[in-house]
Amino acid sequence: MSNVFGNLLKLSIFGDSHGKAMGGILDGCIPNLSIDEKQLEYEMQRRKSGTDFFSSSRKETDRFELLSGIRNRKTTGGPIGFVIHNAAAKSEDYNGLDNLFRPSHADFTYYAKYGTTESAGKLQASGRIFAPVVLAGGIAKQMLAQSGISIYAFVRQIGTVSLDKPYTSIDQKAIESSPVRCPDKHISDKMLQLLKKIKKEGDSTGGIITCVISGCPAGVGDPVFDKLQAKLAQAMFSINAVKGFEYGSGFSSAAMTGSTHNDPFIIKHNRLRTATNHSGGIQGGISNGEDIYFNVAFKPVPGIQQKQKTIDRNAHTVEFVTGGKHDICFVPRAVPVVEAMSALVMADSFLMHLAYAE
Amino acid sequence: MSNVFGNLLKLSIFGDSHGKAMGGILDGCIPNLSIDEKQLEYEMQRRKSGTDFFSSSRKETDRFELLSGIRNRKTTGGPIGFVIHNAAAKSEDYNGLDNLFRPSHADFTYYAKYGTTESAGKLQASGRIFAPVVLAGGIAKQMLAQSGISIYAFVRQIGTVSLDKPYTSIDQKAIESSPVRCPDKHISDKMLQLLKKIKKEGDSTGGIITCVISGCPAGVGDPVFDKLQAKLAQAMFSINAVKGFEYGSGFSSAAMTGSTHNDPFIIKHNRLRTATNHSGGIQGGISNGEDIYFNVAFKPVPGIQQKQKTIDRNAHTVEFVTGGKHDICFVPRAVPVVEAMSALVMADSFLMHLAYAE
Amino acid sequence: MSNVFGNLLKLSIFGDSHGKAMGGILDGCIPNLSIDEKQLEYEMQRRKSGTDFFSSSRKETDRFELLSGIRNRKTTGGPIGFVIHNAAAKSEDYNGLDNLFRPSHADFTYYAKYGTTESAGKLQASGRIFAPVVLAGGIAKQMLAQSGISIYAFVRQIGTVSLDKPYTSIDQKAIESSPVRCPDKHISDKMLQLLKKIKKEGDSTGGIITCVISGCPAGVGDPVFDKLQAKLAQAMFSINAVKGFEYGSGFSSAAMTGSTHNDPFIIKHNRLRTATNHSGGIQGGISNGEDIYFNVAFKPVPGIQQKQKTIDRNAHTVEFVTGGKHDICFVPRAVPVVEAMSALVMADSFLMHLAYAE
Amino acid sequence: MSNVFGNLLKLSIFGDSHGKAMGGILDGCIPNLSIDEKQLEYEMQRRKSGTDFFSSSRKETDRFELLSGIRNRKTTGGPIGFVIHNAAAKSEDYNGLDNLFRPSHADFTYYAKYGTTESAGKLQASGRIFAPVVLAGGIAKQMLAQSGISIYAFVRQIGTVSLDKPYTSIDQKAIESSPVRCPDKHISDKMLQLLKKIKKEGDSTGGIITCVISGCPAGVGDPVFDKLQAKLAQAMFSINAVKGFEYGSGFSSAAMTGSTHNDPFIIKHNRLRTATNHSGGIQGGISNGEDIYFNVAFKPVPGIQQKQKTIDRNAHTVEFVTGGKHDICFVPRAVPVVEAMSALVMADSFLMHLAYAE
Fold first, then answer.
1. Angle between helices A131-145 and A331-356 (to 10 degrees)
2. CA C191 from chain center: how many Å?
3. Residues B259 and A303: beta-carbon distance below 8 Å
4. What is the pLDDT of residues B230-262, one digit of tens each?
5. Percent of chain C with pLDDT over 90
6. Which domains does chain A have, with CATH numbers?
């Protein structure tokens, strides 16, 4: 009841972090869409670990196979099934932990819910579960691109270091050249320094990602329970470790007044626009043609290289150090995940929009 | 496609702000639940306007009729249908506005989506659409109470005035005695002063609500796309004017380290507990038995008593002053709405939990 | 979990047969559709009882009120909420029956499911629950008419009397002039004679309805689980007392051979057609542009004017005669219900079709 | 929008008949259920082709791999992902047919819907798409068995030869020893003779399957749109080539009277039972504790070894003989498919039942 997402464009996923393979089914894609597999490989590559000092040293190949729904590089309209092989599956990394409730992990809650005898890290609580999401989101991006809608995200904050500029004044092309996906060279360097210090301390940290959706026409989204922001929020909180979401003016709007917060309508280049965009491109749950943008906050990785005390399944107090190959900060690797979930929401909403377009 | 909410406990709503009546259908309620109608009236009363200087002077009676699904004060298990009469419907208030795209309202986006010839304020973009939600949420609360789960919310911030205390140190009983639903007398007074000033200026402001869910057992919620926080986030962003949502440590977690953020497990009174609750009662999308708590940020009311320029449907620039009877700040009135949406999510998730309980 | 129907065009209904009112919400209708209320009244009138010797003598006014979603006779795009008043509610008719499990009624199964203390006849098991469906289906019909799709049904069999002609050789205009909605005068008369005899015996009988959907373009419907016939079948078995459904060649196809059953493609008036239509207008779950037609079988009304033995809630054997005002045969009154459910399926499928049309 | 089935127990499937692999994801299975893989292999084996003269000579190995959701032979509660390898994929069989609209196939409707350039036989219209369904249904059967619910089906009719006995007088153990899955030796032999004759003529035929669900407690199912029979009907019409469905007394009930059709309640072995079972174990959409039984009619295989005329994509009349390796009659092979779809419906409905059980 938890592994299917979307209304018209429906993604179902499966996979344990330490099983043979993960995968998914993307149902409801438009037919005759050209699929660029190289681009999908690039998206998968962006999420992969093992290349930076602050990421898990676990080597994931994330090699995927598209098994149906695509012929001669075009979608058939049928469900797109795919698997992602778990080359690096090493469940021995978790040996000795199955019995522990690691702090701020899902071990205890999975145990309470499922009563299974293994660590939640081996099950669906792993961040790897988002590899299929990135692949499906990559297909959704290609579908959206055809209608002129594009999506990008970048790292705005890591731990105590943050980029205090609106997204409109950053250089989108600089994102991927930063190891932490922060497009400001100076801030990016400070972030790397902070991460080195945190690594030395055997600790971890969190961060904030900003995501921008451009080119969405006015009229996409629905009133009340399917507001565009409600679907985006649900999508973002599906991602592990997300603790906050705000769009447009977000939390800061609470302290503003109507007269300063309202976005005046203007005519620009013969098109209706707003002079400011506190609304974040959405009014009444429906896109207004301006950029849609939002922030997503991530908590620190709970697995740290310091001794921690906790309780095991026999209610004994135990001391342990996290094994496995954990990230110091997975926020940079979460950038393509944020984009993928956004793409799935937008493609789904766009299809719904088409059903009612004249 | 936007007026049905929930999986097992399903709420469908209808109503235009200025039509004859609003209403809803709550399907999937457990049978033989005693319904306290007085308590439902009290919830409706809490959302009503017309009693405070900072609320719309529109007199809503919000008289409701339960039409099915309840016999002899007990649920039958069938759908609970209800209507709420629109005594104060005065669509003339909007005369002359139908042609305008009011700034930061849904006029333009509704026009782009539906091409209707009337102001969005007369349609589903009105906050009144949440009257049926409060009624249904009241029933969900009574269902949850039977399982020991309770929900309350209070105002943490109005405009620039905020209450900087954790929810654990406030007096829950003081909430309803404050006109702005802020349980700290001193801060509540400051908020009222601010609102008076803003009213004098013909302006409006936003705020932040904190909501707390107590008594939820461990194991409620689902992994990945139906994480408890994802469902709560979707529910909150369904509410008009919500711009931000964070649970537990929220946005502040981004700057923390794993060693300070992790919630150590302890044994207390023979029960597994966490020493701190940065997790906000949810780990891996599933409740851990601690309080679930979150903040919801609201933007300022867009309707203000100042002259504003905007564009009309003929692309002409026009100047106008908002008519109608608008709130200076609807955050205090949004408290029961936040509780109601939370109750619907929790009751739905709890039913799902029961399907898999042994 | 049982009172919401459809994906894009979603109908939620409520109502107990003997409560104050019934009603529903139709969400997802296209905006700016002209609504002919007279036509809706006509549809409601067709389902009503009390006019024929073989129908329940209960006088239902079935007066409805449209409460939202329609302004100036056009849909706004928002949910259409409506109530239908229960003028004839007389729950005393059921006095003394609450304790009985009437044979082939839902009394026992409702009791097993809900544990409620009243007869199922007062709850959702009543056929009156389909009054809201007929209203909503009437709106769906008007939506379909705009795209050239029309729907009609007629009575093919009542008890042992049946009309053994293909639908293509009947006169559609003669349906409503027959009291039993059978377009063949001779057969219609024989049906009336049979019903008189059955009434005299204090008994009841069943029948078969044929429904025809014309004008549906090729390409509507989906493979596998949302095949057009699967959605129509679910819709028909939602109707009380339906025991069988077959489309196109139906059950008789089992005995045929491929060479006689296959529908050859031909070109006719410059359009691709099939020479025969055993396929019933659907191939692989998707419409092929030919008429969609199907049969729906109804069991006899279980309430009869003869003494029956049964068991009560205390496991005692009791003898009783059905009270209330039951039909001898409700098949003629089920004709508009079959049409309405078909219209809801077709309008929903057609919207889905539009989402993917170029 | 067509490849996901179920509410709580949700099956998503993918696969083209002639692609690399098919597969599925079964989400919502209870945790800690012991899975017997040998039994799953047996179910898959039952659906396989290539063993009988009347089945396609295509050799399918239908080797499956369970990729997630099962550890140490027990379900984890997470989604069960699996693939089924297409050893025999030979898309050359379809060479020359891509351009044709074969009569009573889905070629034309798939073309109208998707505009793809290949034969529908290569896409989702193939019966092989039900291999994943049989696997998932096998898991659902094991889940149901744990609650005492069992399901079996048999062939009642092939072409003009039919078994005219109630299911209660057949020997369930004789089903699998008949090559056509008809438990009556005499009728089974006659069916085989008929099939030999039809094969010689290069023709094909249809048939009828009876399915029986035993051990379901009273109270499973929901009123109105989710009636148990409505969900079963939808499930059956999802299966390719199904043209009719009837449960209990089915179509024959139309000619009966209430006094003969009603099932009297009795007390037997201290349990409430019905003396007859025309109701087919369901009253008001909810199980009554008796056997649930129904018939499913299949049309003849459209692919025959005779010359047929048809139209191609260029609107030319062409003559052709079906290539590929088609069945003369696939009804015997559809028996496990009918059981599997029934198992998915019952397991889903049973979980829903548990959500509301006290």
1. 50
2. 20
3. no
4. 999 999 999 999 999 999 999 999 999 999 999
5. 81
6. 4-357 (3.60.150.10)
Q: What is the mean pLDDT of residues C200-216?
A: 97
User: What is the amino acid identity at position D111?
Assistant: Y
The answer to whether the CB atoms of A259 and B304 lie below 8 A apart is yes
Q: How far apart are CA D215 and CA A346, in angstroms?
A: 46
Q: Which of C165, C164, C127, C156 is nearest to C16 (CA)?
A: C127
Q: How far apart are CA B82 and CA B66, in angstroms?
A: 4
Q: Which residue of chain D is at minimal alpha-carbon distance from B77? A: D356
What is the average pLDDT value for chain C, to the nearest integer? Answer: 92
DSSP string, D13-81: EE--TTSSEEEEEEE-PPTT-B--HHHHHHHHHHH--SSSTTS--------EEE-SSEETTEE-SS-EE
Residue D221 has pLDDT above 70, yes or no: yes
Coil, strand or helix: which one is D137?
Answer: helix
Rounded to the nearest angstrom, the minimum Cα separation between B34 and chain C is 12
Closest Cβ–Cβ partner in B8, B77, B78 for D355: B8
DSSP A205: B
Confidence of residue D127 (pLDDT cuts 50, 70, 90): confident
Q: What is the DSSP string of A234-282?
A: HHHHHSTTEEEEEETTGGGGGGSBHHHH---EEEETTEEEESS-TTTTE
C139-to-A70, C36, C187, C241, C341 alpha-carbon distances in Å: 39, 9, 32, 25, 11
Between the alpha carbon of residue B67 and those of residues B78, B85, C25, C47, D284, the distances in Å are: 11, 13, 14, 22, 22
Asked if C255 contacts D206 with a C-beta cutoff of 8 angstroms, the reply is yes
What one-character DSSP code corresponds to residue B330? Answer: -
For every residue of A73-128, DSSP letters joined together read TEE-SS-EEEEEE-TT--GGGGTTTTTEE-TTSSHHHHHHHH--SS-GGGTTTSGG
* HSE toward the beta carbon, residue C206, CA cutoff 13 A: 26
Kindly state whether B262 is in contact with chain C, defined as any CB-CB distance less than 8 angstroms.
Answer: no
Query: Residues 6 or more apart from C193 whose CB is under 8 A from it?
Result: none
Contacts of A185 (CB under 8 A, 6+ apart): A174, A178
**Beta bridge partner(s), residue B272:** B267
**Residue D271 half-sphere exposure, CB side, CA atoms within 13 Å?**
10
With contact defined as 3+ CB pairs under 8 Å, the chains touching B are A, C, D
Please count the residue pairs, one from chain A and one from chain B, whose beta carbons lie less than 8 angstroms apart: 373
* Chain B positions in Cβ-Cβ contact with residue C27 (cut-off 8 Å): 1-4, 12, 14
Three-class SS state of B283: strand
| Closest among D286, D298, D282, D290 to D335, alpha carbons compared | D298
AA letter at C348: D
Residues on chain A touching C7 (C-beta within 8 angstroms): 7
Closest CA to D12 of A19, A349, A13: A13
Phi, psi for residue D253 in degrees, rounded to 5: -65, -25
Which ipTM score applies to this complex?
A: 0.96
Token pair recorded at residue A19: 């099983």
CB D355 within 8 A of CB B351: yes
Structure tokens at C75: 């849909």
pLDDT tens readout for residues C286-311? 999 999 999 999 999 999 999 999 99
Q: Do D245 and C244 touch (CB under 8 A)?
A: yes
Would you tell me how many other CB atoms lie within 10 Å of the CB of residue D28?
25
Helix (H) or strand (E) segment spanning residue D179: none
Q: Nearest CA of chain B to the CA of D352: how many Å?
A: 6
- Say if residues D156 and D208 touch (Cβ distance below 8 Å): yes
Each residue's pLDDT tens digit, C12-60: 999 987 778 999 999 999 999 999 999 999 999 998 866 688 887 766 6
